[in-house]
Amino acid sequence: MTNTGYYCETVMPFLDVINDYSNGATGTLTATNGDTVGYTVTGTSPTVDWQGLNDGARVNGTGSEQFTVTFDSYVTGATMQISGSNSNEEYFIVVDGVPVDLNTLIADGTVTVTQSGAATHVVNADGSISGGHHSDGSIMEIRFNTAVISLGAVGSVGGNGNWDYFEVGIDSTDFDVVCFNRGTMILTADGPSPVENLAVGDMILTATHGQQPIRWIGSKDITPTRLARQPQLRPIRISAGALGNGLPLRDLLVSRQHRMVVSSPIAERMFGTTNVLVPAIKLTALPDIDVDDSNAPVTYFHLLFDQHEVIFAESAPSESFFVGPESLKMIPPAALTEILALFPELERKTPKIAYPSPSKKQQKQLVARHLKNAKPLLNAFA
Length: 382
Fold this sequence. Notes:
There is one protein chain. By secondary structure, this protein is mainly beta. The chain contains six helices and 30 strands. The strands form ten sheets. A six-stranded antiparallel sheet has the order 3-4-7-15-9-10, with no helix packed on it. The radius of gyration is 23 Å and the shape is globular. The termini are far apart. Residues 178-324 form the Hedgehog/Intein (Hint) domain.
């Protein structure tokens, strides 16, 4: 932490932060992974620089000083740093143009909030923020775990003489969608094939709709340097046999949010259905399922079908690419154009999911019960 006079700030985990918050200001922000994204600032907040700290946006309690940063494309890991508040003023964070209840976003995992210094900022019952007087060195950081297109702040209680100080940075312009690592064997109509050898039109065996053609394939290379800098991009390694019934046949590497089928009597008792989908990262509480820390380069492949499917990777049932609202936000523009040309209806409605996916709390309970009772995740799948 740097502390200069009355004002202090934590060292934000970014290469770059926005330094001009005047209305109409534009620029390019560099993310921690080296990606860049353009932005435009709108609002009435003056740009301030106290005692040599990074320039930030000043916002007062009346709402006459407010700002919004709009990115040229969706970004992940956007973080707002807040300092210099007063206890008699309140602010709402504005996300994608809408003031939000921060309590709700914390509860559902959309944001992660940390504090440093005196840590006297408060999230109020209505989801606004207050506290953190200038003299106590309190810093609050709000990190968004889902993609956003714009961030800002507006005051709701207080006077013109009361203010807060905001900075904005981002982790990445990457998207985290369901994907298989290079080398994964996918079951096709002609037998298992490495995912990197598949092509649009190839017929893939699905769990509920027989053989289905691949409609779109996407891929992304992740270098060891980037993995070291962004460990959240490391794949999950599901060791051979870890799911039960000898599956997967070989070690299976998938992205963190890639959902695997859990099919068991425990799932039936909890949800009234035998088959549910759970992200791979949630399964790491179980033996032989871990974040892969080998630092080997990764190439992720995304397989899209006419509908969301359960397919077989190393013979284990696993989901195909699900193009839901959050995925659409995080797909790069060129890939999004290709997908919407194939499926224009995605702009109007959310596709049907292949199997139910429990809430985060339920996923944790489901995994804990399998662990406690030493039951396989694929006890009932057929």
